[in-house]
């Protein structure tokens, strides 16, 4: 997929279909808890890669972290800047707007699957560069996604593409090996996040079933890989 087409997909969801990100809040709340559990000092600096609807940035900002974000879409960047977030238009494989060793935590949740192999390697190198020594890199990717299952064809030009713009799939070993080049103390595990709060009994039963299926890696449930690692 051409880079400009990939960015058009991101721009569509971030500006025209922001409700599509609402289901991510359980996952992002989990990431917020992981950052809080690090017991970092007041005003610690966190970089999030990929704005989405801006939920993660807003939650961390409310908790007193110095939050920055980077995303290729200018409209999403302009919108979140109005909320007091330090936002830069750019991509994870080029974080040149940020100096070396300036962040305590970098987050990339549901981002790496959008990158080509070259972009992934460059992006992980950039994350390593901007993290402080002992800084934390945490994030998620889909678990063993069958990319063909989400292929669609453009009705105008007939180009076939992944509906979310995913370019590659990962299993646990893939993520561990990719991280091991630049990071240490790596944790990688298959998991799933589902919503229970606010659901009726039937909804909770459905969530429980989805959780069990996801923990066994059944693709229908949408399992994820959670990773965390330290900058060497």
Question: Are there runs of 5+ residues with pLDDT below 50, and where?
Answer: none
Biggest β-sheet description: 7 strands, mixed
CATH structural class: Alpha Beta
Query: Looking at CATH, which topology would you report?
Result: Rossmann fold
What does this structure look like?
- The two termini are 33 Å apart.
- Helix 3 (55-62) links the parallel strand 1 and strand 2.
- This protein has a single domain, classed as Rossmann fold.
- The protein has a seven-stranded mixed beta sheet, sandwiched between helices. It has a two-stranded antiparallel sheet with strand order 6-7.
- The mean pLDDT is 91.
- It contains seven helices and nine strands.
- Helix content is 35%, strand content 25%.
- With 232 residues, the protein is of the alpha/beta class.
- The longest helix has 15 residues, at 201-215.
- The relative contact order is 0.14.
- It is globular, with a radius of gyration of 17 Å.
């Amino acid at each position: 997929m051409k880079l400009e087409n990939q960015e058009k997909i991101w721009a569509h969801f971030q500006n025209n279909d922001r409700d599509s990100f609402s289901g991510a809040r359980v996952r992002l709340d989990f990431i917020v808890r992981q950052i809080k559990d690090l017991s970092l000092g007041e005003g610690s600096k966190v970089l999030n890669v990929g704005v989405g609807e801006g939920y993660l940035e807003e939650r961390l900002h409310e908790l007193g972290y110095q939050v920055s974000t980077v995303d290729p879409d200018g409209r999403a960047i302009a919108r979140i800047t109005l909320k007091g977030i330090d936002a830069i238009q750019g991509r994870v494989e080029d974080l040149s707007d940020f100096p070396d060793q300036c962040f305590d935590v970098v987050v990339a949740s549901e981002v790496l699957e959008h990158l080509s192999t070259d972009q992934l390697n460059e992006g992980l190198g950039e994350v390593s560069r901007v993290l402080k020594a002992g800084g934390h890199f945490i994030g998620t990717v889909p678990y063993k996604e069958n990319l063909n299952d989400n292929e669609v064809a453009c009705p105008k030009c007939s180009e076939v593409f992944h509906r979310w713009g995913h370019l590659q799939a990962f299993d646990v070993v893939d993520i561990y090996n990719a991280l091991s080049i630049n990071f240490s103390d790596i944790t990688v595990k298959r998991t799933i996040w589902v919503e229970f709060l606010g659901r009726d009994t039937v909804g909770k039963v459905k969530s429980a079933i989805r959780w069990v299926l996801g923990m066994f890696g059944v693709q229908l449930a949408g399992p994820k890989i959670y990773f965390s690692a330290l900058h060497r």
